[in-house]
């Protein structure tokens, strides 16, 4: 980890945390094959250097390289480091806002992680934390990283009428709450933030802002950040035609602590999996049911009555449900250590009940 600053101590500034991704990627042959590249090659200082001349006057920046990885390799320890760095910065009076450059493959996981562990703190400290990234490597013709980075810096640093502190994402000219990120296209420049429900950054919709405020009103208390070695082991299984019981049975002999089943349609689970999943729950493995369709909420007891203890994911996709379950299991463990008899289902319901922002 490195940190750079050439400003006097205590100068008000925006903290820019580099995590890697395509925004920091390099193509070997950018003119001919721009999409054949390696993510996480360029340091955060160099990325800021590329946009230096366009940074609005009066914004002091401090950068810190937390990781420089392809986010498909994101590890839970990376999230722990990031969460701790964000919480520290939110408590630091000289930090006025944060920008995080991140790979788009798993920005969805990081978005929900930051909302659940740092969202309340960002709101009470009135600071905006902005995730951004890019779909084209930094040396590709027409690279989208510089404009996304500049937009993110503006969003973190300027006052935006009626927009409170919180955890947001800015990409492709759009803004959304970071918990609403979901990469739904392999190549499109707006892949992580889809068009319809989200606010363009230059014309923030009042309906979107009231959605943000509804989420913030519903989110009362951040959950603890798991220590690097303490993240529960959770796997995602996708139900499909021709599913076999063995796919679930093999987990019964493992130390897995939870399963997310991405079911078909409304979160339906293949009959071949029902018995082994009941067995898994009887062994204490946590179970969350979601949909593999990519959109729409998964509701409790729809289309059938859920087995006792199984939670429906609400609007969460499988990757988000996985992080939510990890944080819920960890929070229940911490609560039990101090004598509070709360279950993972109590914490999971709090997270999954957050309103959708349209
Ligand atoms: N594979 C890259 C990453 O997630 C993709 C991107 O950043 O767009 O790091």
Automatic annotation (TrEMBL):
UniProt cross-references to PROSITE patterns, sorted A to Z: ASN_GLN_ASE_2, ASN_GLN_ASE_3
L-asparaginase N-terminal domain mapped to chain residues: 13-191
Name recorded for this polypeptide: Asparaginase
PANTHER family: 60 KDA LYSOPHOSPHOLIPASE, L-ASPARAGINASE
Positions with a binding annotation for substrate: 71, 104-105
Active site: 22, 104
Asparaginase/glutaminase C-terminal domain location: 234-334
Record Pfam families: Asparaginase (PF00710), Asparaginase_C (PF17763)
Top-rank taxon, per record: Bacteria
GO molecular function terms listed in the Swiss-Prot or TrEMBL record: asparaginase activity
